[in-house]
Amino acid sequence: MRFEALAKSHNRESVRIEELEKRSDLFAKNVFNNSKMLQFLTNEAYSKVQAAIFSGNKIDRKIADQVAEGMKAWALSMGATHYTHWFQPLTGATAEKHDAFFDLMPDGRGIEKFGGGQLVQQEPDASSFPSGGIRNTFEARGYTAWDPTSPAFVYKTTLCIPTIFVSYTGEALDNKAPLLRALHAVDEAATGVAQYFDKNVRKVHATLGWEQEYFLIDKALAQSRPDILMTGRTLVGSSAAKGQQLDDHYFGVIPNRVLSFMSALEKQCMLLGIPVKTRHNEVAPNQFELAPVFEEANLSVDHNLLLMDVMDEIADKHGFKVLFHEKPFAGINGSGKHNNWSLATDTGVNLLSPGSTPMKNLQFLTFFINTIKAVDTYEELLRSSIASASNDHRLGANEAPPAIFSIFVGKQLSDVLDDLEGVSKGKLSPEEKTELKLNVVGKIPEILLDNTDRNRTSPFAFTGNKFEMRGVGSKMNCAKPMTVLNTIVAKQLVDFKKEVDALIDKKNLKKDEAVFNVLREYIKTSKRIRFDGDGYSKDWDTEARKRKLSNNKNTPKAIQVLTSKDSLALFEATKVMNDKELVAHQEVELDNYIFHLQIESSILNELVYNYIVPATLKYQNLLLENIAGLKDVYGAAHKKLTEPQLNILEKMAEHMVAAKKLADLMTQAKIKSDKATSIAKKAQSYCDDVKPYLDQIREHADALEQLVADELWPLTKYRELLFTK
Ligand code: ADP
Ligand code: MG
């Protein structure tokens, strides 16, 4: 396999991509967006859909029929033959079940049919999707329901309708339903607060701009590795002599084959309305990044999921395999997906952007400080939202952001916060007000974007007009962290408004006095979360413990907090998830974690028994034959000549014995873990008792790779995977 794959990859040529049309001409051609709705819908249907998008109004059946009719006409004109409800089950991927528009009339004629019923709701036979026990198979059903805030699109020959996926009794069985509820909560809460500063604000939406990192590996080479194929990462593999030491890949010239892949991908993204903007090489060899212009968070999440599907597909056409795994290769950087987040009003204002007047800056400070306060209160919950078996290789494992949550705001804003801490209690004197206006709030420069001392080690950094959450996994659905972040900020803003209103009503304070008073207390009580130092240092570990910040290094531990008393209360108060859903979602995550480790350990066991040991034995035989031959020819004098061979034989035996023994111990550990009495205990046991064997076995396997003759080694090597263009 290895040598065939290498030959294939050497002979590959880059696919020619023509760019005949301007990108803006391609943009959203395949999306049923506003301009298409205007063209294909009645005025009534159009305005009802717009109202539903703006305020979440229900769309009645008659209107749904009209929308379906228009959507069908458009989709058929785009060459679509099928439609599907496109949803996000808790597996982390997207799911779809295609139905043809085609239908048969009683008189035997064929027609294309699609009505409001099919648009609004579907009942996929979904009993195999994870539900954490919500959906017992007898009460069975899960429904998908249309999300009009994310426009339908045609991909290949299918009309895809973004939907939520809920149980018969309404519990979320997916990642989108909780996200939509969180976005609704933050809209309500933030609108209330934004109206302190501008009465005209009617709606606030969260914005998200993700940055997708990934590896691109030749398809044949990827297929030659059972571990990459089955787990998305290499479980063994000795480091290539050259890794990323020279930093010669980062922002370097993009190789031709990769460039044509990127062009083809971007063209497809344009058609689908995904506003991709930047592309570049990342730090590790064969690692790249792609980022779009930011969008409303729900749409942005959908676009990221769609992008990952499209990438798989286009890569395949170009002879590549995309690795989205957070840590596909040991010894070089892993991949992440920074989530840039902010809040924007329907009047076009970014609430996390400092402005040109003191009032605008007070508004900025309000949202800025409330976000800090929210992250401080719920740091452990936010950490839990990015926990997964594969992301454990980054968080808490000497790799990009640490498992400890902290916020970096930079020197300038730290100074402003320090100044605000000194604001007097209660009413402010005219002098103090002027001082605040001129020298504190007024001092915030309009553009902080060039904030020079950006701290790349911070998991949650303010970057001038948005916060950047850096621990999100490259493979992950951004809906999870976005749900938690928007929920905690919503809760915080509701509390804030209550406190400010109370000061205005009961203590007779002016609005800005009340705001200053509450913010001052928040700055004081959320100090521990602010950290501008090196997030990777040992000192920070110790310091964070003193500050009582959580430091959960693995998934089973990190997601315990999902069902803590405080979390249940938070999600209940914001109406984002009920107890039943939280327990179920936690259970699904634990299950996912266990499955992940079960698969990895099985594959590794197979690699040891069926690949590594047999290869070692072959080389052993070759050496033995050689030694016997030398003995025949040289008699007693052979000893000196065969010393290196014997030495290699001994080393190989040592590592082979150890690898096999550890593989057997790992199997025993799995049997023990499987007997755990609860799913939480089972996951923790897989983490503590099974997972360590993966690294230990790897050490011996990699040592054997260095000993066995290259031509006998069956597994494609790191230098081949990472350096073949
Ligand atoms: P980097 O973090 O690599 O230095 P930038 O700071 O230029 O890159 O921005 C990266 C991402 O931030 C882009 O994907 C962009 O869409 C996103 N972004 C910019 N402004 C906002 C905003 N107001 N809300 C959400 N995302 C934003
Ligand atoms: Mg970034």
Automatic annotation (TrEMBL):
SMART domains: Gln-synt_C (SM01230). Signal peptide: none annotated. Residues 175-612 form the GS catalytic domain. Residues 81-170 form the GS beta-grasp domain. It comes from the Bacteria. InterPro entries: Gln-synt_C, Gln_synt_N, Gln_synth/guanido_kin_cat_dom, Gln_synth_cat_dom, Gln_synth_gly_rich_site, GS_Type-3, GSIII_N. Pfam families: Gln-synt_C, Gln-synt_C-ter, GSIII_N. PANTHER family: GLUTAMINE SYNTHETASE, TYPE-3 GLUTAMINE SYNTHETASE. Belongs to the glutamine synthetase family. This is Glutamine synthetase III. It comes from Croceitalea vernalis. The lineage of its organism: Bacteria, Pseudomonadati, Bacteroidota, Flavobacteriia, Flavobacteriales.
